[in-house]
């Protein structure tokens, strides 16, 4: 994260402002849904229904417009970081690096310039704005649901807390495999440059590591999706009973179920962000270590990004 701040500078502030705009609007459509179902339809006010529907579409367009601007700005910041990282490595190689002693060293350097710079620089654009936006959406939606019906706070906690227990250890298992995978791929690149053919055992090792990562990742996704559907089932069951007993209105159940859907996406995106942070942090440490072994400091600033 220190590298992210140094290489992207003030652009993180602009991304944070756009992210705040997105999560600030995240719970507004839920309220429009509730009012349309409860107030407008019950009273039969056609004019009110039409204006609420127009307002709903307007808010959705503004929210999606802010997301578009945020995504394009993120892409620019990320690509600028990748470009600068690659240029810096090439300049270091031309001016300061001693000649490569063998093909293996050349292959590792090529892998760093071509492949490893991409995910490291690509993470820069989402490093701060992504968790800010997703956490903001989570807090906004949970707060809104608790405001209209306090019992939904228990539902939200039951949806999120179990995942906080099983996601971190599974992510650490992915990180260990990712670290070994990066080192093995570097040696594969060195083998290709040195002899033209990589060692078969290294290719098999990469295959096993990748499959291990996929199994853990998809198992994590399955468990997260199951928790979501369990929460929706609880909301429909409890909410339906409350509607029958006239303790709440139908529009509240609609808003709660929609709110759970809005919790699923930002929580999944937040977990994916944590996964990217962990894996790219491993990649950056290996990247920096490789430069230090050649007596150089890793690139930390961008002439293009910091003004």
Report on this structure.
With 307 residues, the protein is an all-alpha fold. The chain has a single domain (2-292), classed as ABC transporter type 1, transmembrane domain (ABC transporter transmembrane region fold, Up-down Bundle), CATH 1.20.1560. 85% of the residues lie in helices and 0% in strands. It has helices at 2-8, 11-24, 28-43, 46-95, 103-124, 129-148, 151-195, 200-244, 250-292. α5 (103-124) packs antiparallel against α7 (151-195). The longest helix has 50 residues, at 46-95. The radius of gyration is 25 Å and the shape is elongated. The model is unreliable at 301-307 (pLDDT under 50).
List the helices and strands and how they pair.
Elements: H1 2-8, H2 11-24, H3 28-43, H4 46-95, H5 103-124, H6 129-148, H7 151-195, H8 200-244, H9 250-292
Helix pairs in contact: 2-4, 2-6, 3-4, 3-9, 4-5, 5-7, 5-9, 6-7, 6-9, 7-8, 7-9, 8-9
Distance between the first and last residues' Cα: 19 Å
**Secondary-structure element order, as H and E?**
HHHHHHHHH
CATH architecture: Up-down Bundle
| Rg, nearest Å | 25 Å
Global shape: elongated
Oligomer: single chain
Q: Please tally the β strands and state the result.
A: 0
The low-confidence parts are: 301-307
CATH superfamily: ABC transporter type 1, transmembrane domain
Helix content: over 70%
Q: The CATH topology, please? A: ABC transporter transmembrane region fold
Which percent band covers the strand fraction?
under 5%
Keywords:
ABC transporter transmembrane region fold, disordered C terminus, mainly alpha, elongated, 0% strand, 307 residues
């Amino acid at each position: 994260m220190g590298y992210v701040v140094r290489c992207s500078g003030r652009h993180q502030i602009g991304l944070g402002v756009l992210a705040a705009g997105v999560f600030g609007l995240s719970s507004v459509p839920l309220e429009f849904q509730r009012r349309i179902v409860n107030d407008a339809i019950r009273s039969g006010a056609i004019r009110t229904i039409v204006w609420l529907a127009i307002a709903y579409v307007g808010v959705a367009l503004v929210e999606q417009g802010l997301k578009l601007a945020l995504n394009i700005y993120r892409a620019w910041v990320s690509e600028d970081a990748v470009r600068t990282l690659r240029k810096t490595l090439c300049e270091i190689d031309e001016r300061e690096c001693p000649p490569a002693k063998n093909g293996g060293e050349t292959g590792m350097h090529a892998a760093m310039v071509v492949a490893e710079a991409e995910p490291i620089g690509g993470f820069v654009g989402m490093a701060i704005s992504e968790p800010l936006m997703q956490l903001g959406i989570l807090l906004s939606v949970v707060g809104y649901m608790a405001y209209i019906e306090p019992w939904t706070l228990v539902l939200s906690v039951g949806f999120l807390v179990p995942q906080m227990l099983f996601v971190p250890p599974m992510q650490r298992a992915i990180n260990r495999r990712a670290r070994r995978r990066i080192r093995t791929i570097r040696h594969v690149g060195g083998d290709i440059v040195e002899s033209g053919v990589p060692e078969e055992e290294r290719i098999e090792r990469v295959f096993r590591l990748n499959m291990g990562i996929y199994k853990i990742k998809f198992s994590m996704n399955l468990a997260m999706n199951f928790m979501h559907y369990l929460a929706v089932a609880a909301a429909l069951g409890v909410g339906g009973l409350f509607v029958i007993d006239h303790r709440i209105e139908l529009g509240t159940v609609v808003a709660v179920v929609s709110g759970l859907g809005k919790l699923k996406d930002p929580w999944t995106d937040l977990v994916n962000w944590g996964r990217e942070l962990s894996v790219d942090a491993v990649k950056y440490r290996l990247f920096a270590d490789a430069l230090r072994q050649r007596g150089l400091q890793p690139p930390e600033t961008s002439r293009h990004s910091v003004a």
